[in-house]
Design a protein that fits this description.
By secondary structure, the protein is an alpha/beta fold. The protein folds into three domains: about 140 residues, HUPs (Rossmann fold, 3-Layer(aba) Sandwich), CATH 3.40.50.620; about 140 residues, Argininosuccinate synthetase, chain A, domain 2 (Alpha-Beta Complex); about 35 residues. Helices cover about 40% and strands about 20% of the residues. The chain is built from twelve helices and 14 strands. The strands form three sheets. It has a five-stranded parallel β-sheet with strand order 3-2-1-4-5, sandwiched between helices. Strands 10-9-8-13-14 form a five-stranded antiparallel β-sheet. Helix 1 packs across helix 6, helix 3 packs across helix 7 and helix 9 runs antiparallel to helix 10. The N and C termini lie far apart (about 75 Å).
Length: about 400
């Protein structure tokens, strides 16, 4: 492999990536460019800049990507109603394509030879970062320190930090015992007691949501406006994509909505247990399926449902930039042209209940046809007899054959 002169590092400013920064300098004798993305993780980003400066970095990229994240990644995913293995709303997976894209763009802009990330060799994120990077920059070199170094325990990491003068922040009470990942869509928790799938998470694990037991005793009604499958307004107020998700997170969190406890199948082959908080996304999914129920043709809706698990699997496994995901997205986006209207939901004690949906321009629901009252000639019930007999023909033939 050719020598590495400059590397772009996905840098959070935390212990792992601070150690990686120093390790890259020592191992490869190279210049490091740091890239820190604000995708709504809820932490101050500026300390990452100060840490990078303190470690001698000359090129530091810190970017607010919240609007792009929701507009170009979260919203398209929710047009598909994507959910992995029946429960996971893909909060971590959907953030990785954007970070990978910016890593390779910054590498190109700074004439860097490689990119680097802090994902471990056991997880999905290494796959997601690198598949995205190679799709967008086929000849890029990727350095994954967790697959190269021997710092395979927290004790070794702390020893390395101490011997190289890397400051280690200690949080009151020792900080969280869990490995956490957050963005504007969700926050995840892994490790600690969660490694026992029989262990019930304690209430103090959750950061964004109230316990449903402590949620308000009165329900909160919310009206969500859609245009071409994307949320454009809440309670009549137009909002940007990032503002939509932030507002729904606040509402859902207040009412104890969006907690899940999952054992999922990682792409690398192992099962992993994690807890997730996705308050806004839980509301979004319920609302989107509701508006589709009155605006999508039956066969289009069923086709989307058949394709959704494939789409979700592509996202989970890191294939956002693949041709097959793009092809599926084109079909999904075409289906969303008539998905316009309003949905009314009731939020109460951890539950999202649909209480109304309407579309002034694109509803396919016709009360004159569906009514149990006089249908005014819109539907001749006698026609159903021939329809049923024709659809029963093959089964009648098979039934007669069995009697022979």
């Amino acid at each position: 492999m050719p020598d590495v002169k400059k590397v772009v590092l996905a840098y959070s400013g935390g212990l792992d990536t601070s150690i990686i920064l120093k390790w890259l300098q020592d191992k490869y004798d190279c210049e490091v460019v740091t890239f820190t993305a604000d995708i709504g993780q809820g932490e101050e980003i500026e300390p990452a800049r100060q840490k990078a400066i303190a470690m001698g970095m000359k090129e530091i990229y810190i970017e607010d990507l919240r609007e792009e994240f929701v507009r170009e990644y979260v919203f398209p995913m929710f047009r598909a109603n994507a959910i992995y293995e029946g429960e996971y709303l893909l909060g971590t997976a959907i953030a990785r394509p954007l970070i990978a894209k910016r890593l390779v763009e910054i590498a190109r802009d700074t004439d860097a030879d490689a990119i680097s990330h802090g994902a471990t060799g056991k997880g999905n994120d290494q796959v997601r970062f690198e598949l995205g990077a190679y799709a967008l920059s086929p000849d890029i070199r990727v350095i994954a320190p967790w697959r190269e170094w021997d710092l395979d325990s927290r004790e070794k990491l702390l020893d390395y930090a101490a011997s190289h003068g890397i400051p280690v922040e200690t949080k009151p009470g020792g900080g969280s015992p869990y490995s956490m990942d957050a963005n504007l869509l969700h926050i995840s928790y892994e490790g600690g007691g969660l490694e026992d799938p029989w262990w019930e998470p304690t209430e103090d694990i959750w950061r964004w949501t109230r316990s449903p037991l402590d949620a308000p005793d009165s329900p909160r009604y919310v009206e969500i406006g859609f245009e071409h499958g994307d949320i454009r307004s809440i309670d009549g107020e137009p909002l940007s994509p990032a503002a939509v998700l932030a507002h729904l997170n606040a509402l859902g969190g207040e009412h104890g909505i969006g907690r899940t406890d999952i054992v999922e199948n990682r792409y690398v082959g192992m099962k992993s247990r994690g807890c997730y908080e996705t308050p806004g996304g839980t509301i979004m999914l319920k609302a989107h399926r509701a508006i589709e129920s009155i605006t999508l043709d039956r066969e289009v809706a069923h086709l989307k449902d058949e394709l959704m698990p494939r789409y979700a699997k592509l996202l989970y496994n890191g294939y956002w930039w693949s041709p097959e995901r793009k092809a599926l997205q084109a079909l999904i986006d075409q289906s969303q042209i008539p998905v316009n209207g309003e949905v009314r939901l009731k939020l109460y004690k951890g539950n999202v209940t649909l209480v109304g949906r309407k579309s002034a321009t694109d509803s396919l629901f016709d009360a004159n046809i569906a009514t149990f009252e006089e249908d005014r000639g819109a539907y001749d019930q006698k026609d159903a007899e021939g329809f049923i007999r024709l659809n029963a023909l093959r089964m009648r033939i098979a039934g007669r054959q069995k009697r022979v």
